[in-house]
DNA sequence: TTGAAAGCGCTAACAG
DNA sequence: CTGTTAGCGCTTTCAA
């Protein structure tokens, strides 16, 4: 790679390497005569000089490299957005990111952390593929920032989606359309999802605000995949007419996909007979459904940006509590007014 | 980060840094007395020494870093698998990967390439988010390997999916089930997808092998998303009974999703009335459909591994032609025999 | 069997 | 305004 060194440029321009260094990195540039600067630049251009960042890093003790370690970030469909967010701000600020995927293996994680610290990265981000609380690894630097996960004990900068507010937005959408019998197709407790609890809190709060008594029968739980959503939706749709929901808020888009299937099997149409709201805004699901699904987006890109911004010191973070990133509602076509006989 | 240096270890062990270097990196280890080695190791442990890779890299001219630049790798749902494959072999061989996402911007790409070369990466991979042929950037090193794309002109090591064989496998599956009227729901030509052409070749070849005259009416084209698939499938299903397909090979899983929808609207069941095979094996689509979709998997993980292996010199590549990675068929439940009246 | 010494390519005081 | 010089932390001859 970089065959030609700074001394080559210096020789050709008839100056010292110190001068070359200054003009090329734009430091103390005011003190160097314009002619010299010009000569240096031309010489650099002529010999095809490219600075050697390794040497520079050794000297300056700054690598402009940031480490991003994750459990399985690359494998999940959302993860890309987080990466994109982090990468974008890194690029905007001349940083490069070293990505390490530990696949949830603790040994690999320790190794990765050591390798990154050996590589003298300037900053570090610790990312999870889904929102959860983590036991922070002992050898994670103090100033690392957590992405899509909250620290179990240690105080760390962290960012997670505001699931509670997202749940509220989803249910408000339904309430605003006139629904009163709104089911929540939740994930089963055994999955121990923090999102599940938070979204449910949002659901209950909006019901309360709207003066709707929560009906325990309308809180269904299933495996958070299409099959689970279908089964749960079927049970709900089998409820006697007066107790049957006119709308379903689903824990995620996949369950919503199942809800669609259940409705169609019953000969019900979305949104005329049943309104549905999902969560995640999963490309290739939400937008591809028929009708396109109204859902709540997980702010992966924004969280990625935020994490990188605080990692680079571009933004302050409160280490006492995770930053809550808003989850915007994405309105498509799966919400309508309740069927006439339920109207008020 | 690495506060403590090798000289600290040396001081504590009462030896020179040269000795420390040798024992810690296992070089010339035979020439150093076991006692000394022991002392050095203990000292290193005691002071918590961690080698500084930047200094080492400067000295050895080897960074053990590999650059992975892509157009939008992180944003697409498949991309993660390529990353995972590449990352896994990197990890297995003590390499770290720097990921740069250029978002298709040529300027950003040049910058990234320069930054990586300045960073003295030992190897480079140039990845695309979908199979296509690319004009190789001028400043991409000669020994970079192309991932999921083929070079337009230059001879480069490259790996792409064997789409043709994949198309054959898909259609063979249908032929083996007894189908003779097999449609191909293709992407429109304006998208200029190399996969589209190759899969079609596979489709035609298997038809030929089976002695089936291709019916031009059964080659439908649409936008390669669920909506397009649905529209195309509807048109096909509207054909008179004798000309109507009993099976559909879809360009991708999303179109297959649309085919399902069209079938259901017609009151047709998959696979009893209509068999469907997709392509991509897109998680969250293929497996979540009802019934689960038989499809052809894109070998992203394997391609990622392959690319990293040749990048690290672990494997030879023929620069004259891209390596074709097999696309395995994934049998689920969307293929059955043709309905009785079409049986032979 | 071990140590001294010379850099890898660059930056940053300090002189001039 | 520009050059000299002294390292950054490590590896690797060469000498002892």
Automatic annotation (TrEMBL), chains A, B:
Residue ranges annotated for the HTH lacI-type domain, each copy included: 4-60
Keyword annotations from UniProtKB, A to Z: DNA-binding, Repressor, Transcription, Transcription regulation
Organism of derivation: Kutzneria chonburiensis
Keyword Repressor (UniProt): yes
Superkingdom of the source species: Bacteria
InterPro entries: HTH_LacI, LacI/GalR-like_sensor, Lambda_DNA-bd_dom_sf, Peripla_BP_I
Entry annotated with the keyword 4Fe-4S: no
SMART domains: HTH_LACI
PANTHER family: HTH-TYPE TRANSCRIPTIONAL REPRESSOR PURR-RELATED, LACI-RELATED TRANSCRIPTIONAL REPRESSOR
GO molecular function term, any single one: DNA binding
Identification of the protein by name: LacI family DNA-binding transcriptional regulator
Record-linked SUPFAM superfamilies: lambda repressor-like DNA-binding domains (SSF47413), Periplasmic binding protein-like I (SSF53822)
